[in-house]
Amino acid sequence: MPFMTLAQIGDSFWMPQQASESSGLVDWLFYLILIISTVFFVGIVIAMVVFIFKYRRREGYTPKESPSHSLGLELTWSVIPLIIVLALFVFGFRGFMDQFVPPEDAMQVNVIGRKWYWSFEYPDTGLQVSNEFHVPVNKPVKLVITSDDVIHSVFIPAFRLKKDAVPGRYNKAWFQATKTGEYDLFCTEYCGTNHSSMLAKVIVQTESEFNNWMKSQISDPLEDLTDEQFAQYMADPDAFIAANPDLGITQPLWKKGEELYKSLGCVGCHSTNGTKIVGPSFKGIWMAQRPLADGTTVLANEDYIHDSIINPLSHIAAGCDPVMPTYKGRIKEREIAAIIEYFKTLSK
Asked: How far apart are CA 221 and CA 236, in angstroms?
């Protein structure tokens, strides 16, 4: 009962809410160390004040010979701290093993850090999403974490989980969410200009909600259209949507492009208001003459935008470093078409 009471403090005092199996143990250990440290600190300060007053220098008082050795006292101040430290080690090691040794039946999610967004891959289905990922409640989830560029770090406060994302290396961690809801994921390793905007969401759902979400992500209505239907959709989106309510298309193609601009992490490097972040702004990009690093210019038409997404190093913008990753294999042709349609709206 005292252990549980200590663990529950973190859910109502200054700690984030507890939303995973391991968060209670982490909070309990934190408060246990805090209480032990506070007791020793207060005790030592009180003893120090008492000794300062009691043994202060006084007129007419002759100091007595001080003791040079006390076996009992030395054993006391050696054995008691040793027992406390060993106990804390046992609890801490148990918590460490609980957090970093996932169950064999854990669902795997691959986490990839890139400047400045997160990608999440579900290897069982091949699904890849950016800046938010969904998991079922009360089911263990194993994270396999890496980076494509510099060192990042995954931190989910509500789960008391933190693990570095290191290029060329795979770190593992796991959690089992106990409450449905949305939880923040931060990068806690400084990674450059937009480090503070490298945010994501963990969406914890019931198992049925998670399964429905997964089905909706795997089955993309845009990809289900025939080439003829897709051409009609691009030519007149409103008329196509009204005439085909059963196809699952509910918004114009440019709107899908705007969603991709945000979900694929483009927003971290490219603004839409004319401000340069890392790469050039997308404002007014469509059919504009874009200056390149080699001194030439190029017309920003469909071919240029397509090549810049699939092979970004083929067209390095003037004043920018060649740091954009390729999206080859991570984006579909119709999604590129959606992004192009979105860029057209930014030039109006």
From this structure: 17
